[in-house]
Design the sequence.
């Protein structure tokens, strides 16, 4: 609807217009050019134009947030100093595409907030968290995940799905930053909020199974720290929790690893104290878990783990004097080692077998000597003469130590 | 620039101090240097500013005596400059006071003088002239002379655009002036554009939470309210109220502390904060009056909020011992409070009115 008039006519006509506004109006309508605002906008920086756009539409909170984030970015850059990675990069205020994203989603979030649609506000903030996926923009992404978390507490209409999601994200962030206890809290909340519900993520896994996985991982990390601080009992308790989670999560490999860690912890704990002070109850637990681990290792064809588990079990039975069981496990370990074609390992397992056999022999030998009767003496002499294999010994000795 | 000897006086063709028309036949008896078209112009100038500066004009408008030494001439020039600057501040301050009180007509002569003296001292394209131009624009708008206001604003804008190093303070004040002018003309979208610029510049220079920026938010809130966008407006008012330096914060404190309760029980010093400086109360009253005006003219009413404003105003007028206004505001607050579902506000307003009425006896 703009009409382009020859310049002379315009000049003449302007004299007929009395007030300044009328002139501005006329010029705006009839001369193709920039309005005063457009001219000013050309002089302004992109950041200034975006800020002014936000403010004039009433999105003052978006303006405050954007302004503060840019200040933070600049402060980080100053603190890092010249020569650092962040110094080389352009300031946030000079990246138009990022500013555009911020404009779009921040104003969307504010509009949703004013209308009380907190789920929309959350979705907008989540988009921003996804936007900044450069590793150098981690702080920015984390900032928006935190905003999401705060907003999620206010969302009532989705049954807690967003709140759960937010806990998971915050847990991951805490884990990255090394705040393992805080991460565990978040993952536990994630677990509780998703118990019994069918929410799934893009890969088809249910939220609850994801929660189990996160908790297994975080409990294992926690236990690691405890072991470093020599808090063995605490570590074992935590690893038991980890195993429970691994089972619930339904992943065999996870379960196997969890059982293995637990058994190692028991073993480690056992080495620190004298073997005798380990109570019967603990041994039963250890053997139970090792048994399960063995099964898991077998199913998953983890031969090395199987060998390790069998050797461990064999040692436990060996120490307790249960040599038949020890034989069994050592021979199984040997079988598994053969499948690995690991000759040194095979030799090692054979050695254990030998040790167990020697112990058993000692039992029989000692009982014969202690009996101090002529019959026993005859057997001992017979054994000394032909050094027969104890297994073929016709004498059936009641091993009172069994 | 040194004062020029009054050539016009020598030639016998004098100009009116107020409007600049010639010939000006009426002369001020006090200084005998100031001329007016007629008694009306003289009176207007007197009320506005001349009463305060009459004697002060004499050393400025009288030609300098011929001084012999360089040192004496220099000293004389310095003295003159000092006096001129004093006059600028005085004229500007006086005009500002009038504008704040809503007396725009009385402000105009003082503001004009501020501009003239500034021009004499700093030259016609100095940034120092911008405050005077903005003040003149505000006063002219208040009187309804939109064309004049527009001209003053254009002058200010031109100076700012062409000055190589304009300070942020001047820049944001210019935008605020432009914004308020657009709002007065009813050009609300344009007003928002200018106020957005105001807030951006003030925030960049003084910080997001600065008093300067909060002033911009306040005016923006008023505009949004007139556009019926009450949720945006209320959000902005809340933002302003959080700034401890802004009168709105003071108003909220006044409402919360409910001094009338302790005043009723006979304590003199209800809340030291409430009986704060008079200037603070005056500013708070002014700001609240603006808010009240905006809220009353809005297409959609919010009686609860309006009642709150009236309540705070009643309290402020009471504390300033302006009983008629206090009673009026209190009565209106009570009337609105009766329409609301919650009854506590009704009670407190009632208490306040009792207090006010008891004072007149």
Sequence:
């Amino acid at each position: 609807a703009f009409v382009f008039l020859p310049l002379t006519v315009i000049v003449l006509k302007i004299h007929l217009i009395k007030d300044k506004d009328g002139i501005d109006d006329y010029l705006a309508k009839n001369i193709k050019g920039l309005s005063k605002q457009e001219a000013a906008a050309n002089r302004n920086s992109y950041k200034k134009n975006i800020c002014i756009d936000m403010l004039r539409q009433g999105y003052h909170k978006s303006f405050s947030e954007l302004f503060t984030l840019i200040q933070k970015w600049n402060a980080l850059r100053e603190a890092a100093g010249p020569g650092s990675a962040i110094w080389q990069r352009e300031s946030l205020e000079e990246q138009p595409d990022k500013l555009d994203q911020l404009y779009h989603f921040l104003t969307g979030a504010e509009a949703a907030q004013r209308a009380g649609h907190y789920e929309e506000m959350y979705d907008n903030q989540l988009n921003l968290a996804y936007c900044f996926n450069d590793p150098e923009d981690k702080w920015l992404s984390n900032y928006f995940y935190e905003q999401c978390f705060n907003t999620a507490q206010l969302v009532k209409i989705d049954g807690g799905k967003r709140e759960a999601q937010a806990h998971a994200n915050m847990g991951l962030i805490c884990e990255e930053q090394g705040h393992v206890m805080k991460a565990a809290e978040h993952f536990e909340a994630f677990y509780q909020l998703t118990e019994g519900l069918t929410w799934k993520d893009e890969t088809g896994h249910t939220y609850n199974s994801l929660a189990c996985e996160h908790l297994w991982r975080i409990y294992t990390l926690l236990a690691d720290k405890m072991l470093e601080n020599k808090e063995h009992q605490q570590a074992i308790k935590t690893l038991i929790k980890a195993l429970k989670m691994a089972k619930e999560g339904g992943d065999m490999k996870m379960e196997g690893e969890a059982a293995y860690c637990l058994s190692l912890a028991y073993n480690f704990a056992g080495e620190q104290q004298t073997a005798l002070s380990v109570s019967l109850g603990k041994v039963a637990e250890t053997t139970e878990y090792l048994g399960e681990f063995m099964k898991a290792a077998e199913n998953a064809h983890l031969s090395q783990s199987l060998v390790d588990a069998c050797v461990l079990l064999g040692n436990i039975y060996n120490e307790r004097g249960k040599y038949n069981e020890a034989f069994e496990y050592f021979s199984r370990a040997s079988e598994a080692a053969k499948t690995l074609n690991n000759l040194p390992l095979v030799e090692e397992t054979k050695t254990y077998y030998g040790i167990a056999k020697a112990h058993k022999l000692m039992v029989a030998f000692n009982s014969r000597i202690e009996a101090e009767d002529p019959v026993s003496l005859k057997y001992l002499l017979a054994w000394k003469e032909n050094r027969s294999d104890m297994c073929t010994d016709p004498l059936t000795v009641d091993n009172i130590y069994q | 620039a040194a004062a020029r000897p009054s050539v016009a006086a020598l030639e016998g063709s004098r100009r009116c101090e107020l409007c600049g028309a010639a010939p000006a036949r009426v002369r001020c008896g006090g200084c005998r240097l100031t001329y007016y078209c007629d008694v009306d112009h003289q009176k207007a100038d007197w009320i506005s500013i001349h009463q305060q500066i009459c004697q002060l004009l004499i050393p400025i408008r009288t030609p300098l005596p011929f001084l012999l030494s360089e040192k004496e001439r220099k000293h004389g020039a310095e003295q003159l400059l000092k006096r001129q600057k004093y006059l600028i501040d005085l004229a500007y301050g006086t005009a500002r006071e009038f504008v704040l009180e809503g007396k725009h007509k009385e402000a105009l002569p003082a503001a004009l003088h501020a501009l003239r003296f500034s021009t004499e001292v700093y030259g016609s394209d100095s940034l120092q002239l911008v405050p005077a131009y903005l003040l003149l624009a505000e006063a002219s708008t208040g009187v309804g002379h939109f064309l004049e206001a527009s001209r003053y604003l254009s002058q200010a804008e031109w100076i700012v655009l062409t000055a190589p190093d304009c300070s942020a303070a001047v820049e944001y004040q210019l935008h605020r002036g432009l914004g308020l002018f657009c709002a007065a003309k009813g050009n609300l979208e344009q007003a928002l554009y200018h106020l957005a610029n105001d807030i951006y510049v003030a925030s960049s220079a003084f910080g997001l939470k600065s008093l300067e920026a909060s002033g911009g938010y306040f005016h923006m809130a008023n505009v949004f309210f007139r556009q019926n966008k009450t949720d945006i407006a209320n959000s902005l008012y809340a933002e302003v109220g959080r700034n401890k330096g802004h009168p709105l914060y003071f108003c909220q404190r006044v409402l919360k502390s409910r001094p009338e309760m302790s005043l009723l029980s006979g304590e003199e010093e209800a809340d030291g904060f409430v009986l704060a400086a008079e200037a603070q109360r005056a500013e708070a009253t002014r700001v609240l009056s603006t808010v009240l005006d905006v809220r009353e003219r809005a297409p959609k009413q919010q009686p609860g909020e309006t009642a709150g404003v009236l309540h705070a105003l009643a309290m402020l007028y009471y504390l300033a011992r302006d009983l008629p206004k206090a009673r009026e505001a209190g009565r209106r607050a009570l009337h609105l409070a009766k329409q609301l579902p919650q009854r506590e506000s009704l009670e407190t307003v009632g208490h306040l009115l009792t207090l006010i009425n008891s004072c007149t006896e």
